[in-house]
Design brief:
The chain has 131 residues and is an alpha+beta fold. The chain is built from two helices and four strands; from the N terminus they run ββββαα. It has a four-stranded antiparallel beta sheet. It starts with 5 loop residues before the first strand and ends with a helix.
């Protein structure tokens, strides 16, 4: 097993916005889940601390959705090698944060007394290589 020298320090919920559409009626064929992800990386001056801001927005453009939800989470990582940390930031950092986002979405929808939305696993590499 190789050691990367990168450590996951903390994860912080920085935004959670949820609005339930109480008038929503599920169509017979259901509706597709519209979800958009965004990622932004920032580094400390010495380039040894990475903060990855990862957000998911659901049903932002859908007319009359069951709900609208935006969740933003920041993960903080430290490492000794700036190049290794930069490479890590592209795929591995959001992959480490995604389970926290998935859990927040599932719990928020469950607490809204609607069927919980459980996001499937995503291929983070494919997701961000499209951008």
């Amino acid at each position: 097993m190789t050691k990367t020298g990168i450590h996951f320090i903390q994860v912080t919920l920085v935004e959670l916005n949820f609005k339930l559409n109480k008038k929503f009626k599920l169509p017979k064929g259901g509706i597709p889940v519209e979800i958009n992800f965004d990622q932004k990386n920032t580094y400390s001056r010495d380039k040894k601390t990475l903060t990855t801001h990862f957000s998911a927005t659901l049903f932002h453009k859908t007319k009359a959705p069951p709900f609208k939800l935006k969740v933003s989470v920041e993960g903080t990582f430290v490492g000794d090698d700036a190049k290794e940390l930069r490479n890590f930031s592209k795929i591995h950092a959001p992959a480490h944060i995604m389970p926290f986002v998935r859990e927040i979405i599932g719990n928020t929808t469950m607490k809204a007394n609607i069927p919980p939305l459980l996001l499937p696993p995503f291929n983070i590499k494919a997701l961000f290589s499209k951008k």
